[in-house]
From TrEMBL:
One annotated GO biological process: mitochondrial RNA processing
Domain of life: Eukaryota
Listed Pfam families: RAP (PF08373), RESC8 (PF26172)
GO annotation, cellular component aspect: mitochondrial matrix; ribonucleoprotein granule
Organism: Proboscia inermis
PROSITE patterns: RAP (PS51286)
Protein's recorded name: RAP domain-containing protein
Domain (RAP): residue spans on this chain: 373-439
An example molecular function term from Gene Ontology annotations: RNA binding
């Protein structure tokens, strides 16, 4: 009753929790669900009570109706209390009852699992399959929350994402600023290419950018940059809006924003690399940046060098960024080892995971006739989903190595390497792979006479 009335008394809820702990085994399924919902509704954490209720619920979980299961999931996700055994058991039950769920319930389930970082691939696959029949009924929040949940969980579902993109495209004007940012973020995070949807998001965002908060702005520009979908008009408008309040951004928002502009590299946005107020914002937040944010700041700083021929950060901070960036560990992938094996057979000398002056490492740095040739063996993570389009971070790396290290990267895409091998499966395509590399090196970097 107190929770439903919005009346919050921490002391009272603590006392109720103490009493409930010794009587939980007497609770019905409805009482168990209602109790955790009440605590979640007011944001009152009671780990001991939630743990005890999870244990009690496991003994009678099959007696819970669909609404009670939904309430349990929502409550545990809302307070951030993870209970793997409970969520695993609920997952099994939901698989049997999946066709009883409506569109909102389907969305809420994946949202709860994603929020707590609880992986349930079979459940997510089944919900994706069933959701295809409901997508047209989803409201904008359900559309955005669904793709957010799948992206947060790292669970790909191309068919569902294609369908949601199609529906969202038609109804983009229904989305709030947060929903626009979230759906863009989700497609970028999972690496799902949808150019038409991003065009529509850019169009809708351009008209409403003044309604975006700092998180919405940072997520939006990060998403567009990550998928390599460039919208100069949107980035120009966001730069205009961002400029007066950049100092109010938290460290992650600041790093994501300046990184996005470095990736996009629009001539009209050079103020992001030559205006002192950007540098001042970064300097004042420097000690708050985590390692990943320092990587992004380093790449932004390199962009300054691309555009201005010098770094805009003080030398000590530039060096700290470079040091952090250069410490990134790289271990050869199976695909990379396969290419290295063929190069060895070709008697070409090379260094694996070679570190360049910019701090970037390349998979292999060849030396042929005294000339340095970088090779990047690009697996699926360098591309958008099942497409052959490089993502934004890969494009940024190649561009900055070309401009600042003065080296043109030779790329070995994973699908080309596999296609070549398929020509002679018995010998793993060895002869054809030698011919492929020889042709690639001649065509992309050196003269025909350099490799025999």
């Amino acid at each position: 009753s107190y929770a439903s009335l919005g009346h919050i008394s921490s002391l009272l809820f603590d006392e109720i929790a103490e009493v409930a702990l010794v009587r939980v085994d007497e609770f019905s399924s409805q009482e168990l669900a209602n109790t955790v919902c009440a605590y979640a509704a007011i944001g009152h954490s009671s780990p001991a009570l939630f743990e005890k209720i999870a244990e009690a619920a496991l003994y009678s979980i099959h007696k819970f109706n669909s609404q009670e299961l939904a309430n349990m999931l929502w409550a545990y996700a809302k307070v951030g209390h993870s209970s793997h055994a409970l969520f695993d058991e609920i997952s099994e039950i939901l698989l049997c009852r999946i066709h009883e769920l409506n569109s909102q319930e389907l969305t809420n389930k994946v949202w709860a699992y994603a929020t707590l970082g609880h992986v349930s691939p079979t459940l997510f696959d089944k919900i994706a399959e069933v959701s295809l029949g409901y997508v047209n009924e989803f409201n904008s929040q359900e559309l955005a929350n669904t793709v957010w949940a799948y992206a947060t969980s790292g669970h790909t579902s191309p068919t569902l994402f294609n369908k949601i993109a199609e529906v969202s495209f038609r109804r983009i004007d229904e989305f709030s600023p947060q929903e626009l940012a979230n759906i863009a973020w989700a497609y970028a995070k999972i690496g799902h290419s949808s150019p038409a949807l991003f065009d529509k998001i850019a169009e809708a965002s351009l008209c409403r950018v003044h309604d975006f908060n700092s998180r919405n702005i940072a997520n939006t520009v990060w998403a567009f940059a990550s998928v390599g979908h460039y919208s100069p008009a949107l980035f120009d408008k966001i730069a205009e809006v961002t400029w007066p309040c950049l100092h109010q951004y938290n460290s992650q928002e600041l790093a994501n924003t300046v990184w996005a502009y470095a990736v996009s590299n629009f001539p009209s946005n050079v103020e992001f690399c030559h205006d002192q107020c950007v540098a001042d914002s970064i300097i004042s937040s420097f000690e708050k940046f985590d390692r990943w944010s320092l990587f992004q700041i380093h790449q932004w700083n390199l962009w300054c060098s691309e555009s201005l021929d010098n770094s805009i950060l003080p030398s000590d901070l530039s060096n700290r960024c470079l040091e952090s960036f250069s410490l990134e560990d790289g271990s050869p992938s199976k695909l990379q080892r396969s290419v290295a094996h063929v190069l060895t057979k070709m008697r070409i000398s090379f260094e694996e995971e070679a570190r360049l002056g910019t701090g970037y490492s390349v998979d292999m740095l060849l030396t042929i006739n005294g000339e340095k040739i970088p090779i990047e063996v690009d697996g699926p993570s360098h591309y958008l989903g099942e497409s052959k389009t490089q993502n934004g971070s890969t494009r940024l790396k190649h561009r900055q190595i070309g401009v600042l290290d003065g080296l043109e990267i030779v790329t070995v895409p994973y699908w080309e390497w596999d296609e070549v091998a398929a020509k002679d499966k018995r010998n793993n395509g060895f002869k054809y792979r030698i011919a492929y590399l020889r042709s690639l090196l001649k065509k992309q970097y050196i003269g025909d006479g350099a490799i025999n």
